[in-house]
Amino acid sequence: MAELATDERVLPTPALRRVTAVLCATEIVSWGVLYYAFPVVLADLVADTGWPMGAVVAAFSLSQVVAGVTGVGVGRWIDAHGPRGVMTAGSGLAVVAVAGMAATQNLAWFVAAWLMVGVACAATLYAPAFAALTHWGGADRVKALTAVTLVAGLASTVFAPLTAVLLGPLGWRDTYGVLAAILLITVPMHWWGLRHPWPGPHHRAEPTAGLDGPPVWRSGAFLALTAAICLAAAAIYAGVINLVPMLLERGLSTESAAVVLGVGGVGQVCGRLGYRRLEAATSVRTRTTLVVAAVAATTLLLAVVPGPYALLAVVSFLAGTARGACTLIQATAVTDRWGVHRYGTLNGLLSAPLMFAVALSPWLGTVLAENLGGYPAAFGVLAGLAVAATLLTPLTMPRRPVLP
């Protein structure tokens, strides 16, 4: 459902471009520091501290659980008050948390720092950025969302190799210290860059799945959408976090594995560049099915292709392409089906279980690898989860139009 050009929430084009530019910068830094640095430092961190690998990965996973729980409230806050305050506060908390991680002296402190990161993720990563651009973007929302996800898709390309370069001479603690300093720039950017008026919620009845149907969040289509996105996300994020360990198991160096992970980031950019053309050529149902099926196929390729190095990089690129398009499928899932009204709340309800899936996926990948004899078998199971998601996608479409 397209937003009317006269909607009071929609920004003029120059202002929307400035907001988009700000979020491009803050998302690439936030994703790079809060997410993509972790798989690169993981092996060195465990070797230096002696903490169990499972406990360290569990701390990261718990942060994503916290992000999911917190995200529902963040979405409601943004619907009512706008993104400026919550994203600025989230950036500040992220800096404190990453600096605390660098200074940690024991596992409990480390876990506490990751729990703070989880709150920061809910307030700074894609969900609040998507809410801001969806409300302010009007008919140009997909263009703005594509731009932000294009740039943020380079987070692994930039921050995985950067983290590996810092890791050698500095060690994991000082590396996180440098990354915290880089993250600090997002605080003033959110405060000054998102200072546009926000009218608050429109006082209309809760949108429903049909003229006399249940609320959207209780409809069969919304539940199917949630399940499909969660299964696809489990395959995607378990693959991202466990890709470097799998490549190390196959004999690559940390630096070479980080480059392969970074090539996937270039693929994400290409997937997002092509999304608008895909959107113009396909229905919501068709493109959702095609993109999720591509996630399944590329995850399976990662499982069965042992090398050589160049071929692994190509497969990582293709997996990144599917991953990049899937991000925009997620970003537009609510508006494509139910419009923009109460987007922050509905997207928060969709994102909460999604973040649980993201949280459990690194642990799931590790456990599968330990119990199935290695990472290739684990990636095969992850491909199966994406196949299940593909089969669910036809059920994600509402049966009747939504009242405006």
TrEMBL record:
The alphabetized UniProt keywords are: Membrane, Transmembrane, Transmembrane helix, Transport
Give the primary localization class: membrane
Q: Which residues form the signal peptide?
A: none
Name the domain of life this protein comes from.
Answer: Bacteria
Q: Record's Gene3D superfamilies?
A: MFS general substrate transporter like domains (1.20.1250.20)
Instruction: Output the PROSITE patterns linked to this UniProt entry.
Output: MFS
Give yes or no: UniProt keyword Membrane. Answer: yes
Q: Which InterPro entries match?
A: MFS, MFS_dom, MFS_Riboflavin_Transporter, MFS_trans_sf
**What's the protein's topology in the membrane?**
Multi-pass membrane protein
Major facilitator superfamily (MFS) profile domain location: 221-404
PANTHER family (UniProt xref):
RIBOFLAVIN TRANSPORTER RIBJ
What name goes with this protein?
A: MFS transporter
Species of provenance: Mumia xiangluensis
